[in-house]
Amino acid sequence: MMQRKNLIQRKLARTLLVLTVLLALLTLTACGQPTASNTTAPAGTTAGSTQTTAPAGYAFIFKNTPLTIGAAAKPILDALGEPINFFESPSCAYQGMDRIYTYAGIEITTYTEGETDYVYSVAIIDDSVSTPEGIALGASADDVKAAYGSDFAESANQLMYRKGNTDLKFVFAEGDLVSIEYIQVTE
Q1: Which of 24, 38, 93, 168 would be a feasible disulfide site paired with 33, CB 3.0-4.6 Å?
Q2: CA distance 110 to 122
Q3: Is 181 left (phi over 0), alpha (psi -120 to 50) or beta?
Q4: 73, 110 in Cβ contact below 8 A?
Q5: Which strands, in side-by-side order, build the sheet including 166-173?
Q6: Better-scored residue on pLDDT, 72 or 4
Q7: Which helix (H) or strand (E) holds 27?
Q8: Beta bridge pairs of residue 117
Q9: Furthest CA-CA distance within the chain
């Protein structure tokens, strides 16, 4: 009985640790740089005078709107309509503002460069939305590897895939997928 109680306590502590790390990542995204669906979208955009056209990366369509990392945000946000929630703060990494737009199932983070906002990341925030490859929150690491292949970087509870200008990050807790995020490569 005592062993079972200790096992439950360890699992709870591990879950709380993962949730704390996820919260910290979201906080850093909001302060650091600007943060899905069912079909693949076109990629590659120009993002202002100091950026060049990026190679095609992971992208997808949400509510019939292509969401492309690094793309100008205004046409995307106009097509999606009013968000459920909106948050903005001065950027720690760019001149201007970082903005977070929350819609049913996703969260889009943008950053400002010059007079234009660009899509920095898209996070899938509930299991009503999946990647074009059919991965949704709750999937296993084996499901992700089967859908995306073996070309990934792995760290504690995380798989990271890179394609062009986009990192696709999968975070797991106790074997279940708890976070999916498409993030602009900034290196």
Answers
A1: 93
A2: 9
A3: beta
A4: yes
A5: 85-90, 97-103, 106-113, 116-124, 176-184, 166-173, 158-163, 153-155
A6: 72
A7: helix 2-32
A8: 112
A9: 64
Q: Specify the amino acid at residue 84.
A: I
Amino acid making up residue 170:
F
d(CA 129, CA 159): 19
Q: What is the pLDDT of residues 34-65, one digit of tens each?
A: 333 332 333 333 333 333 344 578 877 899 89
Nearest to 123 by CA among 44, 15, 22, 18: 22
Distance of alpha carbon 180 from alpha carbon 127, whole angstroms: 10
21 backbone φψ class: left, alpha, beta (φ>0; ψ -120 to 50):
alpha
Q: Which 8-state DSSP code applies to residue 175?
A: T
Q: What is the pLDDT of residues 94-148, one digit of tens each?
A: 677 899 999 999 999 999 988 899 999 999 999 999 999 999 999 999 999 999 9
Q: Which two tokens stand for residue 76?
A: 């995307």
Closest CA to 40 of 66, 63, 72: 66
